[in-house]
From TrEMBL:
It catalyses: oxidized coenzyme F420-(gamma-L-Glu)(n) + a quinol + H(+) = reduced coenzyme F420-(gamma-L-Glu)(n) + a quinone. It comes from Kitasatospora aburaviensis. Pfam families: F420H2_quin_red, Hemerythrin. Belongs to the F420H(2)-dependent quinone reductase family. This is Nitroreductase/quinone reductase family protein.
C-alpha cells in the first residue's frame, strides 16, 4: 500500500530534524499528536504554525473545508497533546482561543501566513486558533533518583495544574461573567485545563492502583491497611473527577456554579490525599531506585 501524503511528510520531518521539501519547504511546520476522541489511539498530523504574543499557534483550517478537522475534535476530547518541533518533543495543553482573543490572534496569524485568511473566506465556520501551551519549566528541575522523587514530581504537577484551574475559575467569577445573562459556561480555557488535570490524575492513580500499590503490599505487608485507605481515597477523588468530566462533556459547562462547587470539593479531597500519601509512602519509596535498575 502506498504511503499517504501526510505519512510521507511525517517521516521526512523526523528524518531531517524537522525540515521538509516540496510545498512545505522553508515553512514553519510541526507535528501534532492527538488522542482519538473515540478510538483512544494516537494520531499524528503535520501542521503549519505561527508564533504570536508569545504563543505557539495552529489553526484548524482544513484548507477552508466546511467541517473541523479530526485532530481538532480529538483535542477537544483530550487536551494533552504531543508536539514535535524540529528535534524537540514535548507535551502541551491545547487551548482554543475564544471571542475577541481568537479574532486578535487570527489577525496576527494572517499577517504572517495570509493563506489562512483565504481559507476563512471560503467557509462559514469560524476557523479555530489553538494555543499549544507548554507546562511552565521549573527554575531548578529536581533530580529523580528514586520512586519518592518521582512521586513528588508527579504530585507537584498535579498541585500546579489544580491551582491553575482554580485561579482561572475564580477569575471567571470575579469578572462577573457568571451572572451577566449570557449563556452559561466557563469557556474553553477552563475546560481544557481541567480536562488535562483530570487526564493526568487518572493516569497517575491508575498506575498506582495497578502496579505500585500491589508491589508495595507484597514487599511491605505492614503497609496494606495504609494502601487500602489510599486506594479508597483514589476512588473518592475519582468519583468527583468523573462528575467534573461529565460537566465538561460539551464545549461549555452546563452549570458554572455546580462546576465551581465540584472543583472545590475535589481540591479538598485531592490535596488531603496527596499530603497523606507523601507522609505514608515517601520514606519507603526513597529506597526504590527510579528508573528501575535491570
Amino acid at each position: 500500500m502506498p504511503m499517504s501524503f501526510n505519512q510521507a511528510i511525517i517521516e521526512e520531518f523526523r528524518a531531517n530534524a524537522g525540515k521538509v521539501g516540496g510545498p512545505f519547504e522553508g515553512g514553519d511546520l510541526l507535528l501534532l499528536t492527538t488522542t482519538g476522541a473515540r478510538s483512544g489511539r494516537e494520531h499524528t498530523v503535520p501542521l503549519g504554525y505561527v508564533r504570536a504574543e508569545g504563543l505557539l499557534l495552529v489553526v484548524a483550517s482544513a484548507a477552508g473545508a466546511p467541517e473541523h478537522p479530526q485532530w481538532y475534535r480529538n483535542l477537544l476530547a483530550h487536551p494533552v497533546v504531543r508536539v514535535e518541533l524540529g528535534t524537540e518533543v514535548f507535551e502541551a495543553v491545547a487551548v482554543p482561543a475564544e471571542g475577541a482573543r481568537r479574532d486578535r490572534l487570527f489577525e496576527a496569524v494572517v499577517r504572517v501566513a495570509p493563506g489562512y485568511g483565504d481559507y476563512q473566506a471560503h467557509t462559514e465556520r469560524v476557523l479555530p486558533v489553538v494555543a499549544l501551551e507548554r507546562p511552565a519549566a521549573e527554575a531548578e528541575p529536581r533530580a529523580v533518583a528514586n520512586l519518592a522523587d518521582k512521586l513528588v514530581e508527579v504530585h507537584t504537577w498535579l498541585r500546579a495544574h489544580l491551582r491553575h484551574v482554580r485561579e482561572e475559575t475564580e477569575a471567571y467569577f470575579a469578572s462577573g461573567a457568571a451572572g451577566d445573562g449570557r449563556p452559561p459556561g466557563l469557556g474553553l480555557q477552563v475546560r481544557q485545563h481541567c480536562l488535562a488535570l483530570c487526564e493526568g490524575l487518572t493516569h497517575h492513580h491508575t498506575g498506582e492502583d495497578a502496579a505500585i500499590f500491589p508491589a508495595l503490599a507484597r514487599s511491605h505487608p505492614e503497609l496494606r491497611p495504609t494502601l487500602e485507605r489510599l486506594g479508597e481515597e483514589h476512588r473518592e477523588v475519582g468519583r468527583i473527577k468523573d462528575r467534573l468530566v461529565a460537566l465538561l462533556a460539551g464545549i461549555g459547562v452546563a452549570d458554572p456554579q455546580l462546576f465551581r462547587a465540584e472543583l472545590k470539593r475535589m481540591s479538598a479531597e485531592l490535596e488531603a490525599h496527596l499530603d497523606h500519601e507523601e507522609a505514608e509512602l515517601l520514606p519507603v519509596l526513597a529506597g526504590i531506585p527510579f528508573p528501575p535498575r535491570r
